[in-house]
Amino acid sequence: MLCLHPYCPLGSPVSSWAETLDRPELKLRPGIEKSALLSSLNSLFGAPPSKPAILQSAPTTNAAALRRLLRSCPCLYNQVDLAPSAHAIVHLCELSVGGRITDANVVEAFKVQHPKTLGWAYPPARDFQGMGGTIMELLCSEVLTSAGIPAMELDNKNWPVWRMPGHILLNEGKMNDLKALGDILIPCAPTNLVISVKSEKAKERLLYSANSIEGIGFGFFDTPSEFWTKRRMQLYKRMGFSAIYMPDTTLDILNLKLDADGNRQYAVNINGTALYRPLTQFCEDMHNVVGRSAFDL
C-alpha cells in the first residue's frame, strides 16, 4: 500500500512533508493553510511510527484536507489521536510483517490485527472495532495488488475506471449497491468471478455468499470439518463456487480427511480442477483468469 508519510518504515516516494503536501492527491493550494499544515507536520510528525504509539493532535482542523492526508499517509494513524480507518489497519499490518502483503504472508498479516493474537510492530494510536469484514476484504485486495492486479480507481462519479489487469472492490463507490453479491470482482469471461472474503469460520455465510454466480471463497478458515463432508462439497458447487482458498495448515488436515473417507472425488469444481486450494496459490490462479477465461480456474 502506498504511504506518503516521509518516514514510513517500508519506504516512501517522498523524502519530506513538503513533498507530500505537493502531491496532487492532497489537493492543497499554496497559501497560509498549506504553510500552517506543513509547519505542524514538521514539528509533530518528524519521526517514524513508534511502539507504543505517541498520540498527537490532528495537524489541521480542515476536515477534508485531514481526510485526504490520512488516506495518503496511513502511518499517521500510529501518531494521531484518531480512530484508524480499515485502510490504515491494513497498512499497519504491512509494517508488522515487514513488507507488502502477498498470498504468502496474508495469514500472518491477518493475525497481526486479530484480537486474540495482536502482533503490531507499530500499533494504531486508538482502538478500532466493527471493521473486521472491511479489513479482510482489503487484505485480499492488497494481495491482488501486490501480484499486479490492482484495485480499479473510482472516477468523479464514483464508478470504477476499468483497467486490465485489475479488480473491483464491491464495497466502494457506486458498486456498493452490488455488495450483496460478494466483496471483490475479477473481470473475466464468460462471466466475472466474485470473491467472497471470510474470516476463520465459514458456516453458512460462505455457502450462500456465492448467490449462484461463479464464486471464489477466500478466507482464514481454521475449521476443516466445515468443508469435508460430501454434502457440503456438493452444496458449494451447486451454489456456484469454483475455488475456495484457505491456509495451508487447514487445507492439509482437510486433504487428509478427504483421502481417509474416500471423498477426494467430490472436491473437484465444474472445470475438473481442485475445489479447495491453498491461499499461497491464489495469485497464480487469479493471473491465469483475470481478463481471460474463467474456465481456466
Topology:
Layout: H1 17-22, H2 32-44, H3 63-72, H4 86-97, H5 106-113, H6 132-146, E1 168-169, E2 184-186, E3 193-198, H7 203-209, E4 215-219, H8 230-238, E5 241-246, H9 248-261, E6 276-278, H10 282-289
Parallel strand pairs: 3-4, 4-5, 5-6
Antiparallel strand pairs: 1-2, 2-3
Helix pairs in contact: 4-5, 4-6
Helix/sheet category: alpha/beta
Radius of gyration: 21 Å
Count of individual helical segments: 10
Query: In oligomeric terms, what are we looking at?
Result: single chain
Write the element-wise H/E pattern from the N-terminal end onward. Answer: HHHHHHEEEHEHEHEH
Number of domain units: 2
The proportion of strand residues reads: 5-15%
Sheet with most strands: strand arrangement: 1-2-3-4-5-6
For the biggest sheet, the summary is: 6 strands, mixed
Unreliably modeled segments: none
- Helical amount: 25-40%
DSSP, total strands: 6
Query: In one word, what is the shape?
Result: elongated
Q: What is the rounded distance between the termini? A: 27 Å
Mean pLDDT over the full residue set: 91
What do you see in this structure?
This protein has 297 residues and is an alpha/beta fold. The protein folds into 2 domains: 17-131, no CATH class; 147-296, no CATH class. 34% of the residues lie in helices and 8% in strands. Helix 4 packs across helix 5 and helix 4 (86-97) packs across helix 6. It is elongated. The model has no long low-confidence stretch (mean pLDDT 91).
